[in-house]
Amino acid sequence: MTPFGEDRLGRQLGFLVEIDKLKTVLRRTPLTDNSRLENSAEHSWHIALVALVLSEHAPDGIDLSRVVRMLLIHDLVEIDAGDTFCYDPEARAGEAERERRAADRLFALLPPEQGSMLRLLWEEFAAGDSPDARFANAVDRLQPLLLNVSSGGGSWRTHAVTRSQVLARMQPVRTGMPALWRVVERAVADAHERGFLR
Amino acid sequence: MTPFGEDRLGRQLGFLVEIDKLKTVLRRTPLTDNSRLENSAEHSWHIALVALVLSEHAPDGIDLSRVVRMLLIHDLVEIDAGDTFCYDPEARAGEAERERRAADRLFALLPPEQGSMLRLLWEEFAAGDSPDARFANAVDRLQPLLLNVSSGGGSWRTHAVTRSQVLARMQPVRTGMPALWRVVERAVADAHERGFLR
Question: Given B4, B150, B183, which is nearest A17 (Cβ)?
Fold first, then answer.
């Protein structure tokens, strides 16, 4: 399994090779040029930059470096569990259990204390209860909106999503990055007017 | 140019939409499953994780959060300048000037003091002189080696690269993350033995 050996460094390198697979997990959101769907690895890069650039709009008391780490690892479980389309309730049933099993396998590739640390960070993101996780979740919701708006409707248009579905999905922005809520409302109203959203 | 307006937040959002283009810049390294070439956005994600996971092997005095930020933005200039193949001396002529012009345009999309801050971080990476930049450069060199080894030769094989070219290219690992040098030497010797490297 690990061509770099089973010692501490070998396990770290094995994990780093394994996570290359996240680049093959496709999301439903297209790139802004509509050339193809986005994958979860480049999405993770993009949201880390969203967090860095918009950090001044985060509520006080956020640890930005922690948020960035959280965002960089938050989708790793999709290597096994796949990306679940957020507007598909049937697919979402069982998502949590699939992702838990994925976390069991993936984080165990690392030396134990390092794997546990990253797993805790992932669990914090998934629970969405801490200030850092609330901001991270807001960023993770905002980015697909930017892509859908910029690509002329994106996954909203392809999957005939409604305005109220998007507003419900975007609620974490309201709580985790309230300064951006007016941007969301304006973008959704505009997308509806242009026929990108039902 | 910026559908989100020309105020501070609008410029930040415009920048975040613009950098989506990094996902369409292809590198020469294939993914570990050999399904396609890697793009510079997902590469940036991957090296940020390499830095996080291997941080204990960094020399003392590294600011890991700064290194991660540096890695997340280090390839943005490729949106205009393209990815320059590291083993192609002709392509590399003029690379610095192309990248400088790209930085002039891209970082100027942001509010001035924010753009300057990121540009300074990019310049620090490009110069490679500070401890943070040395570690960041080491990480940026090590990751393609992991992919090439795992994909059965990758860009080394496709472009008939020699062992001495790779060892020269990997020197930043020797200085920026010396604990990993034995991994590089072993990987290069093994790749040569298996015929992946001339």
Answer: B150
